[in-house]
Design goal:
The structure is a single chain. Helix content is 13%, strand content 36%. The N and C termini lie far apart (44 Å). A hairpin with a 3-residue loop joins strand 2 and strand 3. It is mostly beta strands and 157 residues long.
Length: 157
């Protein structure tokens, strides 16, 4: 029988960086992909998947040393991990907590799937999507009305 101490997940603290908590289980790899973190990232990255959680039953956690999220990266993450909590770490302490929320409108970070959309035809028009539904996630292109569903989203980010 395991003791409480034996069940604890031990990951070292980081001095500066970002910890993304309450990621839906199985989505941590997508989070790393969206943030452009791959095997060439020069700092420590800790990834915990399917960790027991009191609030969610199971969750993923990503800890990234030396990385501060841009507003664009936070918006991308909100689409694949809504309600995740981003903790900004400074001098080993949580400096700021941000709960991610799906916005009502998404600009410039997603490409429209419609090859005939004005945003894909060399026009100086940035893609804009309206959120039709948050659960399940469905977005609608402002220009051609093409729907984009959440499961197809990570390839577009």
């Amino acid at each position: 029988m395991e003791t409480v101490e034996e069940k604890k997940l031990i990951v070292t603290k980081i001095k500066e960086g970002t910890v993304i908590d309450r990621i839906p289980p199985g989505k941590a790899m997508k989070v790393l992909h969206v943030l452009g973190i791959n095997d060439n990232y020069p700092y420590t990255v800790a990834l915990a998947m399917r960790v027991k959680s009191k609030k969610m039953q199971l969750k993923d956690i990503v800890k990234i040393k030396g990385k501060m999220l841009t507003p664009e990266e936070s918006q991308k993450l909100s689409l694949i991990a809504p309600n995740a909590v981003v903790n900004i770490i400074n001098d080993y302490k949580v400096e700021k907590k941000i709960v991610l929320e799906i916005p009502e409108q998404v600009s410039e970070i997603i490409r429209c799937l419609n090859p005939n959309c004005v945003t894909n035809n060399r026009e100086p028009v940035s893609p804009i999507f309206y959120v039709v539904s948050k659960e399940p996630l469905i977005l609608r292109c402002k220009y051609c009305d093409r729907l984009l569903e959440g499961q197809n989203l990570s390839e577009q980010l």
